Amino acid sequence: MDLNMLRQFLVVARLEHLSQAADELRVAQPSLSRTIARLENELGTPLFDRAGRLRLNDTGKLFRDHVERALGELEAGRRAVAEAASGGFGTARLASETFLTFIGPLAAFKKAHPGVDVELHQLPAAEMARRLLAQDVDLCVASQPIPADGLEAVPLLDEAVWLVTPLDHPLAGRTSVTVDELAGEPFIAAGKGHWHRRLLDRLFAARDLAPKIVYEGDELSAIAELIRAGLGIGLVPDLAKRSIPDTSAAAWIAVDSPDCRRTLTLYWGAGNHLSPAARGLRSTIVDWDWTASGPHSAAAITA
Questions:
Q1: How far is CA 181 from the centre of its chain?
Q2: What is the DSSP letter of 27?
Q3: Which of 208, 159, 219 minimizes the C-alpha distance to 183?
Q4: CA 240, CA 220: separation in Å to the nearest integer?
Q5: pTM for the predicted model, two decimal places
Q6: Which tens digit of pLDDT belongs to each residue from 117-131?
Q7: Sign of CA dihedral 99, 100, 102, 103
Q8: Is 33 helix (H, G, I), strand (E, B) or coil?
Q9: pLDDT confidence of residue 259
């Protein structure tokens, strides 16, 4: 097997669709099919289930993880050689579920190092461990735990998450509410997989309840506006509350549950090569005063 075969396998594994993978790779689909078949013959086992839609099987997932790490090491070696040869600072590659939270530290880092390239990758938390171990990115920040071996982590911020309602909502005058009192209330929420939605689902599941979702999406700025417009209620982290110029446009209510919190954590691969740029960005994020400032945008309501 050669590097090109392995790279083509990773595209097919990611898309689980031969024609889409062939289009992305700009190769003929029959040629790509033969490449995957040759790889499976060399390994002596199928990597995909082909009953109906193409699906990566358990063996394929195992092989994918090893291939990603191997190719990641090669790419890391290439970048390390390039940095040594040029004496440069390298590139910093940061992944997060949202970047509204990081406008402050990113701006500070870029101002201090204007010649450094910073690559930003929006990723769901479920993808972060794999991408770090494959060295596709240098750093990840998540608002939910990433359970995986081979990662190092630094907690950045632990904060309360508030319930936000329109001013004319029946709960608006309360200082605190229980999750049981929220059963049946219309929630404006992020899509499945986002920390905001995971927290909401987890709070209700602990009481054998399910939230009533009237909006589910990834337009975080739309979530803020829909709550203000009176179409539902939602959960908002304290960092966002402290950064919104006028909090009087909505009611902010404490949720009577010790689990209604968010922890921001910075992750990186324990054995990964980090460029000077990535190490510098890591220091900027770790040293940032997260209790003093936050994103300056209406969309920060679900940052």
A1: 30
A2: S
A3: 208
A4: 12
A5: 0.70
A6: 899 998 888 889 888
A7: positive
A8: helix
A9: 93
Token pair, residue 170, equals 């029946």
Give the class (CATH, top level) of 3-66.
mainly alpha
CA distance 229 to 298: 13
- Token pair listed for 121: 């990758």
**What's the rounded Cα separation, in Å, for the pair 223 and 234?**
8
**91-152+264-292 architecture in CATH?**
3-Layer(aba) Sandwich (3.40)
Residues 167-208: pLDDT tens digits?
999 999 999 999 999 999 999 998 888 888 999 999 999 999
As its CATH architecture, domain 157-262 has 3-Layer(aba) Sandwich (3.40)
Same fold for the pair 91-152+264-292 and 157-262: yes
Residues contacting 235, CB < 8 A, separation 6+: 161, 162, 163, 164, 189, 196, 199, 200, 255, 260, 302
Residue 50 has pLDDT above 60, yes or no: yes
List helix spans (H) across the chain.
3-15, 18-25, 29-43, 58-86, 103-112, 125-133, 195-205, 220-228, 238-243, 276-287
